[in-house]
Amino acid sequence: MSRIGRTPVVVPDKAKIAISGSHINVTGPKGTIEWDIPANITVNLDGGHVVVARPSDDKKYRALHGLTRALIANMVEGVTTGFKRQLKIIGVGYRAELKGKIMMFYLGYSHPIVFRPPEGIKLELEPKENLITVSGVDKGLVGATAAKIRSLKKPEPYKGKGIRYVEEHVQIKAGKTAG
Hints:
The structure is a single chain. The protein has two domains: 78 residues, Outer Surface Protein A, domain 3 (Alpha-Beta Complex); 83 residues, Ribosomal protein L6 (Outer Surface Protein A, domain 3), CATH 3.90.930.12. Helices cover 21% and strands 37% of the residues.
């Protein structure tokens, strides 16, 4: 059996889980997440633990077993503590402004880029350090939103200018030499 799949998910007191058929609803202090459980995968609430089981050892069900358990664990963590990714804007004249929920990026193009975050995502900006924080309860949506912001101006390899994750290291290439 899958080591990840057979490990029960511990549900803290702050989170409430409701399972109805093949639908799971997780509610906590940060928000609510709903998800449809894959067919033939069973999810049971056993006291303060969620246990995931599969019908057979077919490759398809082995893959879905661990995936389902991991997604439920991420849902529980998201509604209790939340997820966040931080990005840094590096470059002379590169900056961002937050106007309500909409973020405006000035990244050396002839026009500003308007970015509207999806529902459930909160953007924060520290303008002095050009630091953007993307936070929310859905781990996948937080990561996808951060990747979308990074794709507006990826870090280039010669000067390192662009938008990068705070923990990302960009390898700087050597430029041309005078010959």
